[in-house]
Fold:
Amino acid sequence: MAPSRLLLASILLPALFLLSNAAAQSDTTVTGSPISAPSPHTGDILSVALTQDGQTIVSGSKDHTVKLWRLSDGANLRTLIGHTSSVTCVAVTPDGQMIVSGSGDGTVKVWRTSDGQLLRSFVPSGQAGPGGGTATVTSVAVSPDGQTLISGGADNTVRMWKLADNELLWTSRHVDAVSAVAITPDGQTVVSGSWDRTVRVWRASDGQLLRMLSGHRGMVRSVAVTLDGQTIVSGSDDNTVRVWSLPTGDLLRTLPAHTYVVQAVAVTPDGQTVVSAGRGGTGGTIEVWSLATGELVRTLTGHTALVNCLAATPDGKNIVSCSDDLTIRVWRLSSGEIIPLFKGHTGIVRSVAITPDGQTVVSGGDTTIKLWRYSDGRLLRTLTGATRVVTSVAITPDGETIVSGSGLSECTIKIWRLATGELLRTLPVPGSGDAGHTGQVWTVAITPDGQTIVSSGGTNDRTVKVWRLSDGKLLRTLTGHTSRVTCAAVTGDGQTIVSSSYDNTIKVWRLADGELLRTLPLPGSSDAGHLGGIYTVAIAPDGQTIYSGGYDGTIKVWRLATGEFVRSLQGHTACVTTIAHTPDGRSVVSGSEDGTIRVWEMVQGTLMQTLLCHSAGVMSLAVAPDGRNVISGGADAGVSSGTVQAALWRWAIAPPLGVDPSAGDNNPRQFTLSQNAPNPFNPSTTLRFGLPEAGHVTLAVYDVRGALVCTLVDQTLVSGVHAVQWDGYDAMGREVASGVYLARLTAPQGVVTRRMVLLR
Structure:
């Protein structure tokens, strides 16, 4: 890695601990369902801890809050507000009655778990930290008897306190910032890791240094102690995990854990397994090791930003991780699979929908339809009555009725009352003489007025059918496709049907009379269409654009009125199975058999975000009415939730830059980010900003897709004019390519951005 090239002109840029600042808004890849989806953190999640009973997760974030989550279903139980800067560390007392948090604001706070009440707050550092003010509290640990607290800080200290009254018992020192602390299970020994590249062992009774463990070639970011108190595990910037004998200080083995920084380590209660986390490849990785042999058991991938903290459940079966990608994940240690948020289906979840009020999720899979409470994933009801696989579900605009389609030999459409789960009708109605689909019902859709059902048939059927919902009467059958009709959608005005097929065509029909208006791709089109068949189709909220997803892994964009091909969106590596839109019409969301969900900006088709919410293919998805969350169903039998982040591309549209502070004005009256100079630049540029008041500042660089390149400043600064240099290297020390970049300055006064041009 190239050495740091960052220069702060007015104040020395401090290292602010443990925190690589991958932006939540970046092109984010997430494996599994973020348990925080209903009420997420709005900043990087820096720390997690578990209560002794394993029922509750506690998380701390850059958004200055501590949150409590129920592990079983991911429900957000409580948010603790009081810190004025990033919450860098959290711990729970053994009895589960109190939560302890440390922060960049220099304080340790003690909270009552039951109601979130702040019991006390104190400043453990007696000296000023970098940039003025008190030093960041980087780590906390509570003794096994719950009587004492260990804190580590940016002021190079390890301190022990009485938890009851904050009385300082002793202070010991490293020669650089302390990044991690731990206490042995017998409460007799304290272990700390530091930026000075050492692990130190202290006597708990008086803080006497017992031994110093040297060998890491980079700063030590994390430490853990086995339950028998015999072994220390440490993770470092030298990309290794080291295992030490606590009684002797001998190095037992070195694990070449990660491509980059090892940010966190944890040991299972049985002492058999070490789990390490950090950054690897393009995102965050979690490695699982045998402690006895040093063998790598498995790698858990999916986090796309640095994994900051790990915790093992008391039963040793699960691992909880948190990351700069704003997610908390729960992993099954035995297999490495994600534990889904919504649990209950036994087969592929082929379709999901959300009620218009955003309160209920409906999923279809195996032979059941399940209703879930959106806020916490609780299963409300299971609808049984289908004898074959439920292939599709839709909800009427009034939120009162569910329509489902079934496959294989049943080939029916069923109508259910959502409130009670009562089966109201099966289509075709017996004795009506209406001919139903002769192959499985692939999809169902409902017109905006709630009066009409549109269904598509697969395999040997090849038709689109239009039904009256009130009595189930078949109104018309649309023929013309020469293979399975994979999807049918209705425009927002209810006038037009769009269908897709394995025959590699899209057909546009007038709903009123079933007339075929056009077939895409048009003869002589600039695009030949999909290769290998079309699996899904969707219509933009404004009714002007068609999106189709195919087996070739592409999404193609067409003008509905003319059939003209607009563009192709590329990124998926397997069949695109499902497409939806955010309610504001600004973003397209797609799911694929490659296991990813991708979020695209509609105007230019720019990929903004990637979510990995399933361990197998994504078969269906729906966007919540608030436009913030995506509910998806997968081939892994799971229903998951992922958060759609704000699009950074919008920053480029007339950002409020404020007034450029003059070089000589050290007391700016406005919060500003100046034009960088020179611009364009090669290889370096200087960014100047003015702070009318002191506060915590983050200055980061993003590419035009919204992906984080590097973080230049993340600290509390005094008021005045500051200058920071960026030399065109990313967070990994790699030279970035020529192009347009965005500098984003975040402070208590607001957020401003500046576009920059790098020319190599």
Notes: The CA atoms of residues 137 and 153 lie 4 Å apart. The chain has a mean pLDDT of 81. The two ends are 20 Å apart (CA to CA).
